[in-house]
Amino acid sequence: MSDFSGMEDLLQDFLTEASELLSDVDNKLVELEKRPDDKNLLNVIFRGFHTIKGGAGFLNVDALVNLCHRTENLFDKLRNGELKLTPELMDAILAATGVVRDMFGSLSQSRPPAPADAALLTQLDDALEGRLPSAVAAAPAPAPASAPVAVQASAPVAAPTNHGNEPDWVMLHAAITGAPMPAAKPASAPVPAAPAAAPVPVVSAAPLPAAPVSVPAVTTPAAPAMGLKPAAPAPASKPQPAAQQLAAQETTIRIDTNRLDQVLNLSGEIGLTKNRLTTLRTDILNGKTDSTTLKALDEAIGQLDLLVSDLQNAVMKTRMQPIGRLFQKYPRLARDLARQLGKDVELVISGEETELDKTMLEDLNDPLVHLVRNAVDHGVETIEERIAAGKPPKSIVQLSATQVGDHILIEIVDDGKGMRADFLRRKAVEKGLIDLETANSLDDKQALQLVFMPGFSTKDQISSVSGRGVGMDVVKTNIQKLNGRIDIHSVVGEGTRFAISLPLTLAILPVLVVKVCDQPFGVPLAMVREIIPIRSEQVQEVSGRATIVVRDEILSVRSLARLLGWQETQTPQFGVLMQSGENSFILAIDSFIGRDDVVIKPLQNIRPRGVAGATLSGDGSVVLVLDMEDLLEDNQSDQSAIKTSQFLEMLSNKA
Q: Of the N and C termini of the chain, which has fewer Cβ atoms inside 10 Å?
């Protein structure tokens, strides 16, 4: 077993590059299953695995070298035409890559990984000799992240001998430190059997194709092929260090040097403008207030405003990462789930180059996992059902991302059976989520939104894949936390489209600044459609609620003062026409100040109802940025949340 003391930086470099390579190998393997005769693809896969093996050999991680060597030999025989790629052989290969990822999890905790399960090694040896059984069970569902790695004695290992293909970071380390390159080990040298120990928790390393951006990984270990049994669950041992390690990785990001050069240049320009302002300030303090001096001051301030705006945009670009780094996980996920369910599904990805804020990529992972799994499990039909319906046997699920203005549009589209609104209403009533009267009042578009209700599921039986009614609830909740929205469009017999609209970044939020009771508030501009004047003769009561008709659309009027728990001091003069999900309403306000781009500061150790954070206005006063989704909820069960009025009173007292 290797001792990684003093090699933490080198180990982290290896995990960064190897995780990137392994994610690319996984995606290439899914492509290879569609084009088994593509020699170029096989060569790319072979080189990726060889590089991983070389790095593992340099670190003396014998268990990883052993597993990679066997798998690499399979790729070599495939590209030489000595073996033919079959679904059963692919199951065995993907099982090996899944265990390799599990070993990365152990290495991320600076622990030598346990040797691969003996049954997996035997399976790979049988595949190398052409003895792989022709009938292999479909790949089971991905194991939970806490599934332990079985500890088994290792078979003899053949260490890497080709030193001309070592990864770049290995050669760089050797050049800087004077460390020798790894020497070849005798092929017959056995790896000592690992002592029995408590299974270590599996922590899937996040794929990082171009930068060490820590995106929460989708744990999709490949299902073992025939003859492999999953290890019995056991308590995870000391998970806290792993959590701390992953948290530390999330603070790093790789940035294009051109973007950093732009930031540096703008910083220099701002420094020059600051010097100019300092000189003008000295002149004015000395009594020089002629028109030429004041004009120069105005020009310098205008220049500073322009430079700060450019610098802000340049800094924000350093946080932007291609969404492809997130998308690359899902072809393997879709393939494994389709194999388990006996379906033929192809995941088609487009728009991988679209950029999104790094922090949003991390939070977007779970919703997309649920939506891709939902499309494969619920959306598309089985092969027999598709043939009976006159459709091609293969289902197509499309995952795409495009930038539309200042928003990102992510779509998950399937060509399956679609969703029937009447069926969703009936299921919601059967599960007690809504009453019959409410169900009958919903139109088809509103009925589709029932899938996001907690506890809603169309499955009568719970399986390892679905049926508990928690997945889609998580999707909507997480999207709303990102100040986004999700819409559904479905046609029975043709398929379903989920459309997610997200702001480019959460660091800077465009808001409409409004005033109520002489207090300014920021309302997310993404929800604002227009501002209209409110006249008393326009307001009518319908079912006990104030409403206004706007272009033949009856909209309810919600007083912002009352939502905040205040008494109205004057009749609202303006209404902000807002869109929240599928619902439109008018937010009644006293006045409005205008549009602004604000940097939200979270409120520490305090949670006013309906407040997302705070910012400062130009005159230095506090402006609360509202969380409209929270504010519009009728029933607030959290008794710990204080009222916004109480929070503002606290601020006044401190001032």
A: C
Query: Token pair of 537, please?
Result: 């003769």
At residue 588, the 3 state secondary structure works out as strand
Q: What is the CATH class of 508-654?
A: mainly beta
Give every strand in the sheet of 495-503, ordered side by side: 345-350, 395-404, 407-414, 495-503, 485-491
Long-range CB contacts (within 8 A, 24+) of 549-553: 550/577, 550/586, 553/584
> What whole-number distance in Å separates Cα of residue 127 and Cα of residue 224?
13
Please give the structure tokens belonging to residue 351. 């728009």
Give the CATH number of domain 8-223+237-249; options: 1.20.120.160, 1.50.10.20, 3.50.50.60, 3.10.310.10: 1.20.120.160
Q: Is 331-503 in CATH node 2.40.50.320? A: no
Contact status, residue 476 vs residue 387, Cβ threshold 8 Å: no
**Burial grade of 26 (CB within 10 A; 0-12, 13-18, 19 or more):** buried
Can you give the three-state secondary structure of 180-215, one letter per residue? CCCCCCCCCCCCCCCCCCCCCECCCCCCCCCCCCCC
Question: Which tens digits make up the pLDDT trace of 554-594?
Answer: 888 988 888 888 877 788 889 999 887 667 889 999 998 88
In what helix (H) or strand (E) does residue 249 lie, and over which residues does it extend?
A: helix 239-249
Measured distance CA(302)–CA(315) in Å, rounded: 20
pTM higher than 0.70, yes or no? no
Domain boundaries, the chain: 8-223+237-249, 257-318, 331-503, 508-654
pLDDT per residue as tens digits for the range 513-564: 999 888 889 988 878 889 999 888 888 888 778 888 888 888 889 888 888 8
Going 30 to 32 to 34 to 36, the CA torsion angle's sign is negative
Which residues face 597 on adjacent strands?
A: 510
Residue with the two structure tokens 């079959």: 86
